[in-house]
Write a structure and sequence with these properties.
Radius of gyration: 21 Å
Distance between the termini: 59 Å
Bound molecules: copper (II) ion
Strand content: 25-35%
Order of helices and strands: HEEEEEEEEHEHEHEEEEH
Helix content: 10-25%
């Protein structure tokens, strides 16, 4: 009896492994840029029914042949595959060409000389900013001084597993090694949502629970939208919200290490950093 139960469980486990929850969507849009070495291309696309509104986003391919002959301006039809922990374009077909439009992001508040919006350089103090945490408590960024901080920027409704949800998974994965390494005991994780309209403190609290975030180690923040935007911009985060629905968000990813004195150490761009890399960098700063 016992043997057969184990056997059945093994079959179930194998079946689950062989059939990753996979969803497929049709994506139509225009190629904006191609990063062949990273098997990535940025596409300005129409609404993907049931997944996300029209936006401009980078997508990965697994088969580099799919993007070998593409150029910016190409109009394409593609199949987007969403797995529980990954997303990629499985098929991609060129269907036409059109001139590229100017980028929709408002550049008027981009970094200019000493405007207060310029990118922070490593070694510079991170300006203080006001936030509210997952318990609804007011938190200033300064309140983390004394602990090295790893900080990232997300929104909880992000539909692509390779974007914000990947940042969440990386932070979740860092909790245990941080706890186990005495040198990294004081490191704090901070996740800032740039979607305060949806990501209210109760929503952030629920999100934190789902990620099994240890509240003594990992804090979720949001705040006044303009304050969050201005703070995030200093790290190179760009956020564009749709006019008709500000919850439709096009964004990039930035993850930063800030030392215990509140000075910027390093910014990781995009989604190809690993928890191991961040832990190694943290060990360097606490060792010095
Ligand atoms: Cu996202």
């Amino acid at each position: 009896m016992r043997v057969s139960l184990v056997f059945i469980l093994a079959i179930i486990a194998a079946a689950c492994r062989n059939q990753p929850a996979e969803r497929s969507y049709t994506l139509q849009g225009q190629v904006q840029s191609i990063e062949a070495p990273h098997k990535q291309l940025t596409i300005k696309h129409e609404e993907i029914k049931g997944l996300m509104p029209a936006m401009t986003m980078p997508y990965n391919v697994r088969d580099e042949k799919l993007i070998a002959d593409l150029k910016p301006g190409d109009l394409i039809n593609a199949t987007l595959i969403i797995e529980s922990n990954d997303a990629y374009l499985r098929t991609l077909k060129k269907v036409g060409e059109a001139p590229l439009e100017k980028p929709p992001v408002d550049q008027t508040i981009g970094p200019t000389a000493r405007s207060g919006f310029e990118l922070l350089e490593p070694g510079e103090p991170v300006p203080d900013a006001k936030f509210v945490d997952q318990d609804g408590k007011k938190r200033s960024f300064k309140s983390f001084h004394g602990s090295p901080v790893v900080m990232t920027f997300i929104y909880t409704r992000c539909p692509l597993p390779t974007f914000c949800p990947l940042m969440d998974r990386h932070f979740a994965a860092m909790q245990k090694p941080l706890k186990e390494d005495p040198a990294l005991k004081s490191v704090h994780l901070v996740t800032v949502s740039f979607d305060p309209k949806t990501d209210t403190p109760p929503v952030l609290k629920k999100h934190a629970k789902e990620l099994m975030a240890d509240p003594s180690r990992w804090t979720f923040l949001t705040g006044d939208r303009d304050d969050v935007d201005q703070f995030a911009m200093r790290f190179g985060v760009s956020i564009a919200r749709a006019m008709n629905d500000p919850r439709d968000i096009t964004h990039n990813l930035r993850t930063a290490i800030v030392d215990a004195d509140g000075k910027l150490v390093k910014v990781y761009t995009g989604n190809d950093w690993s928890p191991e890399q961040v832990l190694a960098d943290l060990r360097l700063i606490v060792g010095s």
